[in-house]
Amino acid sequence: MCGIGGVFQRDRERPIDPAVLIAMAAIQSHRGPDGCGWKTIDGVGFTHARLAIIDLNVDRARQPFVSDNQQIMIAHNGEFYDYKRIRADLTSRGYRFKSKSDTELLMHLTDRFGLEGAMTHLRGEFGFAVYEKQHDRLTLVRDRFGIKPLFWTMAPEGLVFGSEIKVLFAHPAVKRKISPHGLYHQLMQLMVPGTTAFEGIHAVQPGQMVIVDRENGELKVRTKTYWDLNFPLLSDRTVQHDDEYYIETLRERFIEAIQLKLEADVPVACYLSGGIDSCTILGVAAACQQSPIKAFTVGFDNQDYDETEISKQMSQAVGADQDIVMTRGGELYDHFARAIWHTERSIYNTFTIAKMLLSDHVQKAGYRVVLTGEGSDELFAGYPQLRLDMIRHGMNDATPEERADLEAWLQESNRLFQGNLLAQNALDDPALTQLVGFTPSCLQSWLSMGSQVPGLLHPDLRAATADYSPGEAIAAALDPDQIAGRHPLDKVQYIWIKTQFESQVLGWAGDRVDMANSMEARPPFLDHHLVEFAVTLPPLMRFRGKRDKYVLREAMKGLLPQALYDRQKFAFMAPPSHTDVEKQRALRSLCDIYLSNGAIQEAGLLDAIAVNQVLQRHADPSTPASARTQLDGIINHLLSVQMLHQQFVAADIPQLAKERSQDLNWRTQQAVLSSVH
User: Fold this and answer.
1) Which residues touch 74 (CB under 8 Å, ≥6 apart)?
2) Domains of the chain (ranges plus CATH)?
């Protein structure tokens, strides 16, 4: 797990300044504190900041890797699992390895199968770059779900890429500006797949290759999808197995995924909450390990949101060594600005910050790798908004009375999340309804925020986005062939995975706040062998009666305490600021700094009068709780965009990156190259 960056110049003869490459590595040294590597070939430069997890030898596993004939260069962030078996197979075929790094597999698999052919053998989470000299081609590749980030942009001299946006901004030629439409989406949380807050900065999408060919001094960019979820068509769901088949197959694939993700040359721990996702992972991991496994839990000073007590039941049941990190009062707001530096986008709830503080604690406890529960809700319909659409659109055999009873139960049992995960009022977006057949509930609360965005924008930006439809932009970015002809539950799971899951759950609540503290998080539920089975599950194996994630509960019933087996999904969130006086004070202190009239005028993003109206309504005790919850999210967005401007537009990122490289003593004269054949 590392950070990568690089440049692909239009002019192959133009020299690349090694100091720029090293600065691009240094600005992301939190992703890779164990050393820097760089290499240039014919107007192509790669850089790498390493976090040592597999093969701890500093020099042997240093990237970028370059073939002896100088034909292939690779820089890789992430992990390839099952690498020992693949390495043994390649060795038996005559390939020779110079390191024990899993990255070296990619070099030899590409030689044997070609890059596209190699993809079917890569199992894990990754973002990597490959330059093929023979074709004069750069290819950027992101894992199937977007667990690992990867961004690119076009600068005057060529394409610049990196694991984080700040890596691109460390290059002096890259423009730093928040775009009008990017700002619009930052203020409503819901983003268009492949976009960012910044003008001209693109995200490589999950399961995608960005292929760049250099021809006669020009760079030609194209994209290719190498993997997608491929939920079965309704017409292909005619043959169904009995429950036992689905339960047994899931159990087999889940255990295999955990076994693979426990592989490391450093100790591996688990994140543990009160949900069955992390609890089942802990239970299986504890059975796989010879010694007690370490579990880390974050807690809140509000019983409505705190899960520490129920997590203790699981920890005690499997004999884990549990470490609980409590967050109190306004503590989370003290770290808000640091969180935005790492997320590089807006956040709506401070559990992002709590997760960052948890990963900091885990790293200081001596761990660099944790197993996490992300992906289970997406695969097995754990979220209430997914189940709501199953009730409304996917239960053709149920009577209207049965559906009404289920919906009333769902709304009541998730009342804490009204105005957040669940929209206060139903919303219909014409473009999404045309694509899906209805507007997915998982997008409605965020789309409802969109109606408030124009009034919050600076007048110039309001004019620039006057005719903009965020729902239409999102619908246009989704693949209609992956949606048409599917069951309604499959449709909404697909859309959630392609939108909020990638940019929110895996992004600012996942990799970005874990790697802020050099912490590698591995989600077993996102092993693609497991996922390719999970998408075939009949809807009633995911949501049956009033039980979410039915198949997972049944598969893991033998290791779950009864209270956990019976417990409904509870979204992991921090208490909103209006629930506590200390939190209100801490939020107000941030607003005094970042949302003052002067700060708003300087950034030129927001309308000061509208912002003050939001703050006044949020502070009014007579405002309904669900409205205050939504306003809390809006204020967090407002703070976020002001911090984004201060940290990434107003600040001199190239100079900061240069200073960081000097502090680290990462120098161009160092022997930083690795060679493989």
Assistant:
1) 46, 63, 64, 65, 66, 103, 106, 107, 110, 128, 129, 130, 131
2) 2-227 (3.60.20.10), 229-651 (3.40.50.620)
